[in-house]
Amino acid sequence: MSRRTLDTQQVVESAAALADAEGLDAVTLTRVAEHLGVRQPALYRHVDSFDALIRALGLRGRGILADRLGAAAVGMAGDDAVWAMGVAWRSMVADHPGLYAATDRYPCATDPELEEAVERVVEVLGQALTAYGLSDVDRVHAARSMRSVFHGFAHLESGDGHPYALDLDDSFNRLVNLLCAGIRQMATVPV
Prior knowledge:
70% helix, Tetracycline Repressor, domain 2, 2 domains, mainly alpha, Arc Repressor Mutant, subunit A
């Protein structure tokens, strides 16, 4: 193998492409090195360990998710914003299944950078809820609920965890309608 100049971003991008194409379990340092045309030890200049690489994938996945949620909600308010972000969440998971799987690989507690990445997602969700007239506390609760709902549905959908022979889009539509009704119920000011 010839020598080539690498940086951390190239290593993470290569691992992300492999994860999205073949699944997170296909990512190994050996496979990433082969994809980059280097020997495995060359990767250690850019990632401390396999766990550090998976953590970097989780951060990248959360960043893409937050960016997509924010972009989807631009110009939207109320139920329309919730719908747009739900669709964006599902789309991100469909487009980046390996990166999304990495977001669940390690607990965020005690890792300030991972905690911050999760909080960014919750903040983006919460910002889109201002039209509901929720108190600051209720907006955080509603944003956390949205995160739980969208993550749960997407996680089950990506892992074939919906065994009934019903249309998943119909299930998702009903779920978002239920979520919007719940958020409206929380509102201190009628929508």
